[in-house]
């Protein structure tokens, strides 16, 4: 059994697989005590470093953070390396607790928020990936490619006129269909519970007693770790008036200030963006929870198309659609990051209050430091030119997309809207069948795939699905051989593989536009002898 000291190296015995028992006797600090000066000092350093590096990569290459390098993984690796270095030189008199680490991670992620997964996802999710890869790249995309020149112009695969238009609209339709179903289902369950409570009890239970009863029912039957984590997480809940008031306040300020800065958009456009943002937030957060992949860029392109068609070319729709879509993405990305941070808080017994305050402070620091870094790069010679070091290729591609969006639905390829309606209905039908199966206890719901996971291969590539299935196979074999060992060791192994892959993605982006000092080429012996003979012949002529 652990001694209760942070950093103790005691191992789990064969009869237990509890993580929290290793920390028995360690007092969990209150949420105010988790917000220390060293937390924000270290976050400022690491967040500044990440902002400079990631903005440089974004301006030099078509670097998309959400698709290539999860910032949370990289920021956590840099954060741990920095704190370990300070600890080695003796600048940290008291060890940093895991609650402080979670708050720092949230702060850094808010600052720089501009084979492994298959080991931590259920088997049905991996099968959904594989099924989506087979359907998309095995049948659907080859079929659409055969219609090139008929349904859409030839040579337009990377624009909304061509195959890319199908990708953006159809993927967004699947995500919106899945998210819409769960929003409606959540609302219906909530109203049903309210009706049943009022019907059976006949009187209103005091709020504190009702919350205690719900918390007791929630933790009943859980393991020791989940029981303790759930109690600690629910202890410091965030008041609902603060959530609603903060959303209304930021929406009102944005609706007034943004049209003043960009006259191409009107307050109604920003208000509409804020009204649709909660629905898209729910859809994206649900997708991140299932697949660990954020579709914020896809929703951003979808928003460009909607607002560009609404505003129109003559009314400044190019810049207006870019501004409105930026508002949508700026609201969505921190929301999905916050859901992941809440899971981190749950796993480390960190207060959700301290975590959300840490992310808010990190975002505020990023709002100051980010524009300063961009202004530094903006003053470099030939900024934005195609042949310069900082070509900002993403800016040109999004501008082209906004120009096309102002032309309305005519820019889309043939049958795109009809297919989008079908793709919107598919997740609705699958989820209805799943819920009916659960209510009838037929067991069919366990074999119905997740439409969100199926949509990822449609949007990126099918090799990701193969990686997930291989990781899931490793998980299955590991659990079959030693279930206790897998329960404890699978998460750190998967995290290590994820961090290693992210480090290589980060390094490869640095050397993308670099010119090698020498060139090496390998020949077979016969080819080399022919090359040498031709070289000697040319030199003697």
UniProtKB/TrEMBL annotation:
InterPro entries found in the cross-reference section: OPT, YSL-like
Keyword flag Membrane: yes
Keyword Cytoplasm: no
GO molecular-function terms, A-Z: oligopeptide transmembrane transporter activity
Cell compartment(s), UniProt: Membrane
Transmembrane region(s): 35-55, 62-82, 102-119, 126-144, 164-191, 238-262, 268-290, 302-335, 355-378, 416-433, 453-478
Pfam families for the chain: OPT
Superkingdom of this protein's organism: Eukaryota
Membrane topology label: Multi-pass membrane protein
GO cellular component: membrane
Family to which this protein belongs: Belongs to the YSL (TC 2.A.67.2) family.
UniProt xrefs under PANTHER family: METAL-NICOTIANAMINE TRANSPORTER YSL7-RELATED, OLIGOPEPTIDE TRANSPORTER YGL114W-RELATED
Protein name: Uncharacterized protein
Organism whose genome encodes this protein: Dioscorea zingiberensis
